[in-house]
Amino acid sequence: MAIRLLIADDHHIVRRGLVFFLKTQKNIEIIGEASNGEEAVSMAEAFRPDVILMDLDMPVMNGIEATREITKRSMPSKIMILTSFSDQDHVIPAIEAGAAGYQLKDVQPDVLVQAIEKLVKGENEIHPKATAHLLKQLSQRQSEQNELNVLTKREKDVLREIAAGKSNKEIAAALFITEKTVKTHVSNLLSKLQVTDRTQAALLAVRLGIHKY
């Protein structure tokens, strides 16, 4: 059975090029073309393709927003990002939004076909450049998580309250300790996390999810 494919890209020439090549593949059927993210969501819901080739930089609704919307609606389609961007500011949000694959537009045609086939089989297929950024981000997060491990349970409690925007007085009331003790904990956790102020500590807490503990 052929892989039913939807192409979402705002550049007509890019879509034409993809259609021209992919139509030559016996195991791929092009079931639609979308010129923006909103159209991609509507067509995904209407046609239920196996795979969606999704550009990121599109009008009306960008590729990350469209990917997130399709994922939220629990559609069966696997989403392969096909873009020119390989930096972590695009890779990480796309993967977090629900993309199962990430390829760059300079990918060799045969490699793209293989990536589509692997996606259908349930394998995530990510371009080496994008993978490098993912690994870098994961390494950074692990390093930050290790930093949090040096905090005591009480210091983490105080950090969580700082992330909620509470003053020392409010933290003291919430944790049933004195303001003096709060100040000591704040000083200790800032030193251990190697940050200069409460705002930086709060951002770190939010990024790592400690504010949800």
From TrEMBL:
<keyword id="KW-0597">Phosphoprotein</keyword>
<dbReference type="Pfam" id="PF00072">
    <property type="entry name" value="Response_reg"/>
</dbReference>
<dbReference type="InterPro" id="IPR058245">
    <property type="entry name" value="NreC/VraR/RcsB-like_REC"/>
</dbReference>
<keyword id="KW-0804">Transcription</keyword>
<dbReference type="GO" id="GO:0000160">
    <property type="term" value="P:phosphorelay signal transduction system"/>
</dbReference>
<dbReference type="InterPro" id="IPR000792">
    <property type="entry name" value="Tscrpt_reg_LuxR_C"/>
</dbReference>
<feature type="domain" description="HTH luxR-type">
    <location>
        <begin position="144"/>
        <end position="209"/>
    </location>
</feature>
<feature type="domain" description="Response regulatory">
    <location>
        <begin position="4"/>
        <end position="120"/>
    </location>
</feature>
<dbReference type="GO" id="GO:0006355">
    <property type="term" value="P:regulation of DNA-templated transcription"/>
</dbReference>
<keyword id="KW-0238">DNA-binding</keyword>
<dbReference type="InterPro" id="IPR016032">
    <property type="entry name" value="Sig_transdc_resp-reg_C-effctor"/>
</dbReference>
<dbReference type="InterPro" id="IPR001789">
    <property type="entry name" value="Sig_transdc_resp-reg_receiver"/>
</dbReference>
<dbReference type="Pfam" id="PF00196">
    <property type="entry name" value="GerE"/>
</dbReference>
<dbReference type="InterPro" id="IPR011006">
    <property type="entry name" value="CheY-like_superfamily"/>
</dbReference>
<dbReference type="GO" id="GO:0005737">
    <property type="term" value="C:cytoplasm"/>
</dbReference>
<feature type="modified residue" description="4-aspartylphosphate">
    <location>
        <position position="55"/>
    </location>
</feature>
<protein>
    <submittedName>
        <fullName>Response regulator transcription factor</fullName>
    </submittedName>
</protein>
<dbReference type="InterPro" id="IPR039420">
    <property type="entry name" value="WalR-like"/>
</dbReference>
<keyword id="KW-0805">Transcription regulation</keyword>
<dbReference type="GO" id="GO:0003677">
    <property type="term" value="F:DNA binding"/>
</dbReference>
<keyword id="KW-0963">Cytoplasm</keyword>
